[in-house]
């Protein structure tokens, strides 16, 4: 009996050691990648690496983000709904003297507390007017990337100023080089030089596939059957992204890190329809509260997952990724959150156990977005409660179901006409009608009333959007620093 107890104790200790191990974490964000812009949903798109990784892990059928970039990234890294941090309104402009509030503790800062080495490569877009707003002041040990949104992939310029930075210094040596190449190379350098005794958190918010639509011709040439020039080159940008991820996973394998790495891949919003992305058969696209703007292509694969090769239907929101990755790491914020559902105060829910063991999602409700500041390219208010989705007022820029522009030069129309306020109300059962064809608000007035009341309650915690006018001081600082977008003007 004593011998048996000893064996049981040894097994228990071994299991505890296994489950307490901190995995390496690779968090990949694809910029403007649509629901239908990936090989495992669209055979016209060549993404063999992504398809393989996804098939070996957990593909999320109901993972939601915000309609545009800055709000989603703020949710990823803070765990808060953007309407509570002032990031609910469109995206940050280059001349706006704001950033994600400095009193927030971001995901990389939490990872550093847990003993992780933290690195970021790619797009920031959470504000840079003050050095304290920038990545290396917000928890990252190193950063190579750009602060703004739609910089040129080769010149790395936006509005005539250069925007590529290696930590706090302008990275002029990359002028003229395709960003995807040196972003991949920097990722490989980080992995190859990493001390494997230390857990690694690598945040890779890629520039692809955001416009401008640019890619080396060899990747566009993979699509001889696509007649539309824009869609052809957009598709090449997706395949370039796939090759970058292949090279990064190979580097992890060669370093004997891959089996100890958890990979999260997600888009930041739906496809930008005017720049050849596609969300079919979902309705709408980027800039809208329709499913095509907010239901993201996403999957998780690698270390710690117990049920793989599956599709997961449970609800997940962008705010959940921060506590979920911290949960996967077994990290702390004040107290251990590996054993609790959420970090006190944030909106995100730790979904790690639900995902890794294929259990029901701990989330039944979320806000798509709340905004009270009009701009004609983004919706105002929407909520999900179980299978029900309510949209109040203006849903966003595009209203339709658009197929890939493979053989046409047509572009989507601005189909929706803005109407102020919360009318009309549109109600959909997303389980029965995932593509939002049938508005049942007139048939279900009680549901409309219930969800409208919930939105009203959420609005009580909404803060004003951080959306000031352009600050000319940004120009002054950029010119003073040799034509480089530089912090120091707020």
What features would you describe in this structure?
The structure is a single chain. The protein is of the alpha/beta class and 490 residues long. The protein has a single domain, classed as 3-Layer(aba) Sandwich (Alkaline Phosphatase, subunit A). The chain has helices at residues 2-20, 48-55, 69-78, 107-113, 179-192, 217-220, 229-254, 291-294, 321-329, 352-356, 445-459, 473-480; strands at 24-30, 58-60, 63-64, 117-123, 142-146, 157-158, 161-162, 165-166, 169-170, 200-205, 261-267, 298-302, 310-312, 316-317, 332-333, 335-336, 365-370, 381-385, 388-392, 425-429. Strands 9-8-5-4-10-1-11-12-2-13 form a 10-stranded mixed β-sheet, with helices on both faces. The protein has a 4-stranded antiparallel β-sheet with strand order 17-18-19-20, covered by helices on one side. Mean pLDDT is 91; it is low at 1-19 and 333-342.
Short description:
The chain has helices spanning 2-20, 48-55, 69-78, 107-113, 179-192, 217-220, 229-254, 291-294, 321-329, 352-356, 445-459, 473-480, and strands at residues 24-30, 58-60, 63-64, 117-123, 142-146, 157-158, 161-162, 165-166, 169-170, 200-205, 261-267, 298-302, 310-312, 316-317, 332-333, 335-336, 365-370, 381-385, 388-392, 425-429. With 490 residues, it is α/β, with parallel strands linked by helices. A hairpin with a 2-residue loop joins β18 (381-385) and β19.
């Amino acid at each position: 009996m004593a011998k048996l107890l000893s064996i049981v104790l040894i097994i228990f200790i071994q299991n505890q050691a296994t489950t307490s191990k901190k995995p390496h974490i690779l968090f990949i964000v694809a910029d403007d990648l649509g629901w239908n812009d990936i090989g495992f949903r669209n055979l016209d798109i060549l993404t063999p690496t992504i398809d393989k990784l996804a098939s070996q892990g957990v593909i999320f059928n109901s993972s939601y983000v915000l309609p545009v970039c800055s709000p989603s990234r703020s949710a990823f890294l803070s765990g808060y709904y953007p309407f509570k941090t002032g990031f609910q309104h469109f995206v940050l402009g280059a001349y706006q003297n704001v950033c994600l509030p400095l009193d927030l503790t971001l995901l990389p800062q939490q990872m550093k507390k847990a003993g992780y080495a933290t690195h970021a490569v790619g797009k920031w877009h959470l504000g840079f007017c003050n050095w304290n707003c920038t990545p290396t002041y917000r928890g990252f040990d190193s950063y190579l990337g750009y602060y703004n949104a739609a910089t040129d992939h080769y010149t790395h310029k936006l509005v005539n100023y250069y925007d590529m930075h290696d930590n706090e210094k302008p990275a002029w040596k990359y002028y003229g080089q395709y960003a995807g190449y040196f972003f991949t190379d920097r990722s490989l350098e980080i992995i190859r030089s990493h001390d494997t005794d230390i857990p690694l958190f690598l945040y890779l918010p890629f520039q692809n596939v955001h416009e401008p639509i640019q890619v080396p011709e060899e990747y566009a040439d993979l699509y001889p059957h696509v007649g539309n020039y824009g869609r052809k080159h957009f598709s090449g940008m997706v395949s370039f992204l796939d090759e970058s991820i292949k090279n990064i996973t190979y580097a992890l394998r060669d370093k004997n890190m891959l089996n100890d790495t958890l990979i999260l891949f997600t888009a930041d919003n739906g496809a930008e329809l005017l720049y050849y992305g596609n969300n079919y058969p979902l309705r709408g696209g980027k800039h809208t509260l329709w499913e095509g703007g907010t239901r993201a292509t996403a999957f998780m694969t690698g270390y710690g997952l117990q049920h793989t090769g599956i599709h997961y239907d449970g609800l997940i929101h962008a705010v959940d990724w921060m506590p979920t990755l911290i949960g996967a790491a077994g990290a702390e914020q004040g107290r251990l959150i590996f054993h609790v559902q959420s970090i006190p105060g944030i909106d995100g829910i730790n979904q790690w156990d639900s995902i890794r063991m294929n259990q029901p999602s701990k989330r039944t409700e979320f806000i798509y977005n709340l905004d009270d500041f009009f701009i004609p390219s983004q919706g105002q208010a929407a909520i999900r409660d179980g299978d029900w989705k309510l949209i109040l007022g203006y849903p966003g820029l595009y209203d339709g179901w658009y197929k890939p522009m493979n053989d046409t030069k047509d572009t989507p129309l601005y189909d929706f006409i803005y109407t102020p306020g919360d009318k009309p109300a549109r109600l959909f059962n997303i389980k029965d009608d995932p593509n939002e064809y049938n508005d049942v608000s007139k048939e279900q007035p009680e549901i409309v009333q219930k969800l409208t009341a919930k939105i009203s309650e959420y609005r009580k915690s909404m803060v004003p959007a951080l959306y000031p006018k352009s600050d000319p001081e940004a120009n002054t600082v950029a010119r003073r620093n040799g034509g480089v977008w530089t912090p120091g003007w707020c």
